[in-house]
Each structure stands twice: as structure tokens, then as C-alpha cells.
Amino acid sequence: MKSIKPLLPSLLTALVILVCNIALLVFSPVRYKMKSTCNVQLPLRCNDRKREIPIFYNLFIKQQKDIPRIKGYFQEQSAITLPIHRMIVSLIANFDLPKDFFPADSSHVMIDHVESGSELVSLHKVWEHCQLVSDDQAFDSLVVYLHDKGSLHPNRRNDLMRQRITKGALSEACANLPDTCNVCSMRFSPVPFPHVSGNMWLARCSYVKKLIAPSAFSKKMDSFRGKGNGWGKQRFAFEAYIHYHNDARPCDVLPDNNNYTWGYSDNASLFDDEPQIKAAPCLPYEEFMKEINKNSMTAKDCALNAPDRLDVHNHIEGSFSHPPVDWWGYDFYPNAREQVKDWIHNHTSKSTDVLL
């Protein structure tokens, strides 16, 4: 009788494929509509063809005396990368780094060194990278954006935020992004503008390819009718960029045992538990409004309803378009469907019955 050992690899491969197919049948990817609960987790994709995920890291160092501190930030963030991550660094400094700045075992490469700049340096690299990915590979091509949060203003609150949002963006939950998501982070916050507080995230290139260049976005936001940074203007345009498009399908991974919405938090144990991926926003509008009220913001300061949010999108895109039927805003903003119907009617004479 012939030995079955040569057949074992083929049998194991067939078994893995069978398990994947069964999982896909049982957990067919659907859009979970969650208005006020965070206890539903999305099924992970069963994909044995894991692609390398580039991390575009914006490394800003103002003065040479800051090097040891920021070296600690970088090593702290590098320590929680996954084997599939690859760090691609853009340095903003008017001096060179010491040879021992990067960890000896770091899989990094420095592609840029400019003397001055902002987060736009690496955000543009993210956008540029995805434009070069072919359409047939863009859906499965993921990219991460990180930076050395707190480099300019070192304090405990920035340390806590940097650690939390890095943990979210680099989590295995985000790396195994469900088909129904195209942006993943610690917490997606719809107000005062759609963003991730602290601005670190993972995204699909198929989505990033739809966005205009970050520098163009920043300029267009400055010309929007709304006044104040609550609309995502000036330096806040960096945070507003990744979620501005109506085709954003946000997910976040902050466990459902807290009601954190946006901004800084002094709660040191905010993100101690394991990441849990779910469609976002999963907290209700009223929960996010608590922070809006705390900051004494009104509808003049930011988009607090669906039509205002859609006006921002159309201003950026330079043309009228209605949101897709599964837009996250329908289940978040109060009376969104009726308001959007009226908003569409004001912009076009076409029937909206089939749209909503």
C-alpha cells in the first residue's frame, strides 16, 4: 500500500478551502444597521491570500532635542505591528536622524525627508500609493496611516490618544477587514465632522482611489460656506479627509463597554479590552451630541444633520450626487431619510422614490 504522507498537504489545503467556503455561506457579508447598540460584530473575511499592508508613517520632529522622546513613540507603535505590516516613513525635520533611531528588527523604509511640512506629506503618499494599485486588486489592497501624535505637544492626553488610535489602526480586526467596510479605526465619529479623533486608520485602496488628493481637499474645505473648524477646516482637514466621501463604509473596533465618542479622554483603561470590529457609527446621535453640547457648538459650527453633511460632500466633489442607499448617515442623523428626500428634491426634479 502506498504511503498517504505525500497526499497530506493537498488534503490539508482542501480542508482549509472547505472551511472557508462554509464560513462564507454561514456568514454572508451584509451591512448591519445599528442605531443604538454596539453588540453586533461583523464576520471576518476568510482569505488565505493575505497581502502586505503598508503603513505610511508621518514622522515629524521639530527639534533635535525631541529625538529621544519621539524615538520612544515610534518604537512603541512599531512594537504592535503585525507580520503583514510594512512601515514606510516620511520624515519632516531639518536634520538627519541618528542611525539607531529605528529598531534593529524594524521592517521600515524611509522614502521621504523634507525640512518642513504637515500630515499632508504622508496623507498624499497614501493617496498616491492607492492610485497606482490596479482596479482589480484595489479592493483587497489595504493601507494604514499613522503619525507620531504628541510630537509637538507632549502630554499625557496625547500619549493616551496615540496609544489607543494606534492600537485600533494596527489591530488584527482591522487587518481582517470585512467586505462591508472600507475604513477601520478605533472609533468613527460622525460629528462635528466624520473623522477619527487623532487621525490614524486603515482603509481600502478601492475607496481611497475615489477621493480627491488631500491637498486639494484641504483647499476646498477652506472655501466651504461653513465657518469654524467644526466643519473640518485648516488643520482639522487632515482628520476630515478619509471619511468625507459618501461611499465611506466605516467600521470601528473600540469594545462596546464604553460610550467614548470623540475628542480626548483621561480614562486610562478606555481601550484595555480586545478590539471588536463592527459597523459604525454604533452609538446613537444623542450620545455624540453630549460632546457637541459640552463644547457649546451649534448647527452654525458643524454639520448636525444629513443635508448639511451632504452639502459638504458635493462641495468637495464639485457636482451634485445623492448618497447611496446604505449610507451610514440614514441611520444616524434624526429624520435623515425624509430630510434627504427633500434635499434631493431641491437639487433635482427626478423622482426620489427609488432612491430611498
Task: Outline the structure in words.
The chain has helices spanning 8-26, 67-78, 120-131, 135-138, 156-169, 172-175, 205-208, 214-222, 237-240, 285-294, 306-317, 336-347, and strands spanning 53-60, 85-92, 108-114, 142-147, 183-185, 201-204, 250-252, 278-279. The longest helix has 19 residues, at 8-26. Strands 3-2-1-4-6-5-7-8 form an eight-stranded mixed beta sheet. It has a domain at 53-209 and 248-290: Spore Coat Polysaccharide Biosynthesis Protein SpsA, Chain A (Alpha-Beta Complex). The protein is of the alpha/beta class and 356 residues long. The protein starts with 7 loop residues before the first helix and ends in a 9-residue tail after the last helix.
> What's the assembly state of these chains?
single chain
CATH architecture grouping of the domain at 53-209 and 248-290: Alpha-Beta Complex
SSE order, as H and E? HEHEEHHEHHEEHHHEEHHH
**Helical segment count:** 12
Percent helix: 25-40%
CATH topology of the domain at 53-209 and 248-290: Spore Coat Polysaccharide Biosynthesis Protein SpsA, Chain A
Strand content: 5-15%
Straight-line N-to-C gap: 66 Å
Q: Structural class, from helix and strand content? A: alpha/beta
The radius of gyration is: 21 Å
Number of strands: 8
CATH C-level class of the domain at 53-209 and 248-290 is Alpha Beta
